[in-house]
Amino acid sequence: MLRQQQPRTLAGRLRLLAVRRRSSSPLLLFFSRSPSLPPAAPPSAATNNSNPAITPTAPATAVRFFTRPANLSTPRPQLPFLAVPLSAWRRNNNNKQQQQFRYLTTERKRWLAHEFLTAGKYTVSLWAILGLTVAIYWSLQQEWLERRYPTPHEWTYLTRARSRLARWAPDRTDVFATDWVQAGAYAKNVLERLEDPSLDGGALLPPRDDGEVGFDATAASEPWRRGYHQILMLCGRAAEHLDDQVVDTTRHLVFPAAQVRGPSNPHPAPIAAGSPPAPREEDCDRAYDPPEAYYGRVLATRGFSARQKMDAALAHAAWLEFKGAPEAAARMYERALALAVEGSGAARPGGPLLPYDEKTYVLRDDNSEEEGRKPSANVLASLTALATHKARGGDVEAALPILISILRARRSLPSPQQQQPRRKPSSSSAMAAVSSEVAFGGDTGTGTSSSSSSSPWTMENVSSLIKSVVLEPAYPPPPDDGSAPPARDPGELCEEAGLNLYIGEIIYAMSSKSTNSNSSSSSSKNGSRSGREDGLAWTREAVDLAEEQLHKLKLRGGGGSGNEAQAAEHAKKTCKDCLESGLTNWAAMVERLAREEKEKKEKERQEDKKVAAAAKSGWLGLWGDGNGSGSGSGSGSGGNRDAAGEEEENRSVGRWEAEEQVVRERTRRARDIIEELEAPKTGIAALVWA
User: At residue 646, does pLDDT exceed 60?
Assistant: First the structure.
């Protein structure tokens, strides 16, 4: 077998390697001229002749190292995974076998696996961040709601969470209108869970008789009963707002009853733009139970205090009065008064301890022999509601003495410093108050402590802060049951302002009524005018008192914890309502008096003109205006004086017109403390806060 001749020197070996790299055939070797190496024989000669002696030799050709003959140019080898054929090549080579190309190579597989893994990591990370953000927001919201609307700790988590959301819904300020459908649904669900023995109603006993609607909650704890009462009252409040609503059973949507299409409503009210179509009458049902069902359940449940039952009776009476049933409302007000007397320690209505006259409902004097103690807070509240009901019904002669006696009783109440504490707080409540004070910087009202003047980084303060953050806040102690006389605190002073407002409105209305009936008598006019001024004075005093107390409450802030914070919020709300109503009544009263004053001025001006015209016109018009000769110059000067007098009268402002301007200014100033606008954010928060 023939072998290929190998070069002997290093230069020859390098040339051979270069030629092999350039050539497509490994057997074709071309060498440059070298004196030490003979020319290589062509492979054809070696294959045709087996004898090397007679093999013909070809002349040596000179081939440069860096050149390549044209006859040796062949296409480079095409690998399937390195080249993609062109369409033209495919058209020219239809008869040839098409090559198969691999698009999913090993490198591409690795790249795709890396991309999928990276995308999965990013997706999982983003969803984890989003889920943790939602969980943190939910936790912080529930913690804030628990401190604002505390729930009993013995309830389950779902019951407590829905109870907080239900109580928060009416007080939300970040929505345009309260969603009473959602609030009522939450409250009703919580009520069902509390009355279910398998969930949270283990301590609630069923009614003893078949006719009773209330349960027996005497075996439950006081926090459980208080929370149960709050949910029942919230259900009644939601039922009042949803009394005219119906639910479409086919779509489970709530609509006003006026929009239902049916025989009983031939002309339905139009629906809002973008709302679903109006329901049919045969598909509708009542959206919520009537309020009487929930208020009656509070009155029939055993275990509630007299104050809790009295609140339910007053709410039920107000609802009956709103629905146009004054007789039923009066009976319910009387029942609330009986519950108030029962809780204050009286044996029975009409007994020796009854603080008011049974016929006129006027409070007795404190120095009388029959009653030597002041009326309780429950009695004052129920009597005030009964008197306002009588006044709205038109019986102002009976309502005015009741209100005056209540005002006299409230003004004789002791101050908070003079009144002794009625209840000693428990140790858990005290610890909760201290923790809340340290954590949130509030003032519990228990006096200055020894640690308040020291550094805030003491071990006691730090441990209290950690406990307040980690542990759930303690449930607040029970509020005042109203069986004792109240103290004359800012809340009671706002109640006094409300009484002044009622009295002023009644006196003004009575005086206006007498003016309209006796318009011809001058003495009756003077008496009615003085009566209206008295009513205006009562209203003005109510506005001053409410504004003063509201300023004090605003300067004091929302300090305190538990019942003190709730009492401060209730007092602030009472003062705001009294101030708004007082300014409205004051403006209406002054506007009417100013209008009458203008009419009186206009009438006097017309009479003066008539007298002046009669004085000017003498016999046959020859005597002038009586101030000079009858010449034209004299009459012209008199006309100028009359015009100047009219302009001076127009520029002069009357008494009630001036007070009307005062009312406008007071209303503008009071708007700042009534609305309580938040200060604008500063720093980075101002960039993201609308």
Answer: no
